[in-house]
Amino acid sequence: MEERIVKFISALRTGGVRVSLAESSDAFKAIEEMGVRNREGFRLSLRSTLVKDFKDIPLFEELFQLFFSSSDIPPMLDLTKDFTPDESRMLAEAIRQFGVEIRKMLERLLRGEQLSQEELERLGRMVGLDRSENLRYREWMVQRMEKVLHFPEVRQALEELAAVLEEMGMNKQRVEQLRRLIQANQNAVEEQLRQYSGQRIAENMSDRPPGQELSQLMNQDFNSLSEKDMERLRKEVQRLAAALRTSLALRRKRAKTGSLDAKATIRANIKHGNVPIDIRYRDRSLKPKVIVLCDVSTSMRQCSELMLHLLYAIQDQISKTHAFAFIDHLEYISPDFLGHEARKAVEQVLNRMPSGYYNTDLGHCLDTYSHDYMDTLDSHTTVIIVGDGRNNYNNPRIDLFNVIARRSRRTIWLNPESPSLWGTGDSDMLQYAPACDAVFQASNLAQLTAAVNQLLSY
């Protein structure tokens, strides 16, 4: 139990709760007096000694549930035992109409099979849960795991299955009972995912070493950053931007002569009998014109925020920037930066488009851009998209994206997700990627800075 309490205190600290060594000692003394048999007394002993600010109470309560509560996943029922031969035949025939993955999941729900620990760990690795240290992403992680398991499609298939069984002659009450029981089993799996997600994030929080070095923080995934971590990285962006600005300026100075202009050189050297004594160069402006579209939904907020900070901190090295933010709709945010510091401008944008579990729809936003803002795009423009390419099964409007890519000088995509996840679930990344000149993984600040440096260097 002592080890569990130590991990709990470590997780509180990672979550931003200030807990001193003296307060940790007080917690152990209180527990020694009160004991652990009375769960409510145990909880209050910890809360009264470890929490000093009322705003930290919700985090305390959530972590306490994860560290000191037993699993309460609803039991799953094996529905196949109650089928008559005719019902089994009709069900097997009805399920056969669905794709392999949907059919397997429906059959699994019918048998009442929970996910194994191995399967949970594999799902966690696929969605980045093994690196997440922020409980506010718990539900988002659950949603991502559900998408990998094809749960949205299973819900739709369940309604279609009920209709088909009725058409085949199965009793209506029996069909409704079957639908409810399958749904109950699916809810139980969702609760299993929710509990595993919370417990894994809590364990990750407890395992983080105190006083993490900035170099480690720069290589830490955006979706595992706490608010305290983000504050450190916002300050670090200013230093990185200064170094990047100097690098770009030096690169521009060395390349200011531009490329050789053969025709102008020949004309200038007619007086020398066409001996090229005076070499002429084309004027060349290396300052890019940039259009950036940033997904500021919950899953992308940290990445897009730091990208905007970085981009506007190096504005003197860019000829013109048109910035847009989107979730389920597109907003032109360049005016927010006029006359404001980059940090205040970014805060203003994020406050206007608060985080939450929106139905992200890049396709609709591309449609808005094409109708209202196409005049910001020309053949000298570099288009940068910061997003995970997930459209929640909405129309991705690849046709419009291809038009934008053809009209621009270059199209660059920065995606925080691992390439192994592109094309899974509701990800349309594999459809967008062929139209891009380059696609960079930018899951942490180090990768994001390297990508910006590279995309502005040519």
Give a verbal description of the structure:
This protein is an alpha/beta fold and 458 residues long. The protein folds into 4 domains: 2-70; 79-207, no CATH class; 223-254 and 287-455, Rossmann fold, CATH 3.40.50; 258-286, no CATH class. 54% of the residues lie in helices and 7% in strands. It has 19 helices and 6 strands. It has helices at 2-14, 21-34, 39-50, 57-68, 85-95, 100-111, 117-127, 138-148, 151-167, 172-207, 214-218, 227-254, 262-268, 301-313, 342-352, 362-372, 398-407, 429-432, 445-455, and strands at 289-295, 320-326, 330-332, 381-386, 410-415, 438-441. A 6-stranded mixed beta sheet has the order 3-2-1-4-5-6, sandwiched between helices. A hairpin with a 3-residue loop joins strand 2 and strand 3 (330-332). Helix 8 packs across helix 10 (172-207) and helix 9 (151-167) runs antiparallel to helix 10. The longest helix has 36 residues, at 172-207. It is flat. The mean pLDDT is 81.
Could you give a short description of this structure?
The protein starts with a helix and ends with a helix.
